[in-house]
Amino acid sequence: MTAHISESEDSCSARAAGAAGAADPLANLAGQLVASSRGDESAFAELYDLVAPRVYGLVLRVLNDPHLSQEVTQEIFLQLWETSGRFDPDRGSARSWILTMAHRRAVDCVRSSEARRRRDHMDAERSRMAPFDQTAEEAHASLDAQTLRAALATLSHTQQQALELAYFGGHTHTEVSRLLQLPLGTAKTRIRDGLIQLRDIMPSVAATPA
After folding, report:
1. Beta-strand (E) ranges in 39-198?
2. Are 111 and 72 within 8 A, CB to CB?
3. Is a pLDDT exceeding 50 seen at residue 42?
4. Range with lowest mean pLDDT among 8-22, 37-51, 161-175
5. Which of the 8 DSSP states describes residue 195?
6. Are 39 and 31 in contact (CB under 8 A)?
7. Closest residue by Cα to residue 28 from 6, 51, 53
8. Considering only the top CATH level, what class is 153-207?
9. Tens digit of each residue's pLDDT (9 = 90 or more) over 102-115
10. pLDDT tens digit string along 117-138?
11. Where are the domains of the chain?
12. Which of 44, 59, 132, 157 would bridge 69 by S-S if both were Cys, CB 3.0 to 4.6 A apart?
């Protein structure tokens, strides 16, 4: 009689557990996660069917973009499949673990999008400012060239020749001496003396109104 009662109680307990599982389809998420960590694709498919709507709803609330939310939801489940073995039932429910993962992924997506927008904005600003900066540099270079030529005009003809060959023509001292048919020492002296005079003349030339 006792054995019969025990069997009846076990049967009732099993039916109660089954009824509880039917009432709460998420009750077995932990078992499905464990099975998924072992490569059980059918368990993972069941898990997906159960929590995908909740995950998508959470992601949509964060991103407010249906298409992007669908993409991120798929990424979350890929991550879930790859990391399901990290779930620890002693640290919380499977549902909380999954939704926490989803929320973090959605927030990371928002941060990434904001960073990308900031980079695009900075690139656009640099592109917008580039023509102005380039024009300013060209104007400055042109002004320096004009100032230098005005200063050169104050030098002797021989000094002008030597400096123009050396600095506008890009020739070495040896080449300047050969082109002007001068001894190397004389060419160097003319270049040096011309530079000394330019150093003294340039400030006054630059300050002279056009």
Report:
1. none
2. no
3. yes
4. 8-22
5. H
6. no
7. 51
8. mainly alpha
9. 999 999 988 888 88
10. 777 777 666 655 445 445 444 4
11. 2-120, 153-207
12. 59
Which residue is associated with the tokens 């656009």? 124
Say what percent of the chain tops pLDDT 90: 24
Report the mean per-residue pLDDT for the chain. 75
CB 44 within 8 A of CB 32: yes
Instruction: Give the number of other CB atoms < 10 A from CB of residue 79.
Output: 14
Residue showing tokens 């270079």: 141
- Residue partners of 106: CB distance under 8 A and separation at least 6: 58, 59, 62, 63, 69, 72
User: Into which CATH architecture does domain 2-120 fall?
Assistant: Orthogonal Bundle (1.10)
The answer to whether 98 touches 55, Cβ cutoff 8 Å, is: yes
Structure tokens at 120: 């695009």
Contacts of 44 (CB under 8 A, 6+ apart): 32, 35, 36, 81, 84
